[in-house]
Amino acid sequence: MSFELASGAEARWTNPGHPRAVVCVDGGTAAEVPGTWSASVEWLVRALAPRFPELSFLEVRYRVKSWRRLDKCVEDARAALAATDADELALLGFSMGGAVSVHVAGDPRVSTVIALAPWLYDQLDVTPLDGRRFAILHGSLDRGLPWIPGVAPELSRRGFERARARGVDASRTIIPGALHPVALRSPGGRTVPMPRARRWAGLVAEELTRFCT
To answer: Domain 2-212: what homologous superfamily?
Structure first.
């Protein structure tokens, strides 16, 4: 069941009440539209939560999911961090959520940032990643398509290089054959995994295992 964050956004827990938590944030669009639950994040949480019963997962639904209102999305993510009393946090950001995660990574409880097909725009300040683990996963076929938005892998490469230049413990993995989303939502509301979805899940699981040790 969802609940309201201090910012006015929504959030929902899976496996609540553990000392380690994963805060999950979504992508966005050019249009300033109301937030929705991310199909990609939801599919991953449903796939991974049973494998990590010792982790709490908090999914965030923005008030407005648009990179034109990135400031509001960052506010929503900060409100989500404030809503958990976990001792240690990982951030899982999909697409624009990669940039949102970097913005809020300075929280002292954050030790890990996992960015999936992330929009790491060139002006993004990566200093909040100092002292954190930063793992980037990106599909080799990610690009803007008429029916699916995308983020060019070149953007995550440049962001990765900026982080590494600062001495951040960063890695970047390209997933052959993967598009931008991990999953899409059917008209009936079901999450439908895209090609290579299980590879995405496996790589995220590796990072979560590292986070737990």
So the answer is: Alpha/Beta hydrolase fold, catalytic domain (3.40.50.1820)
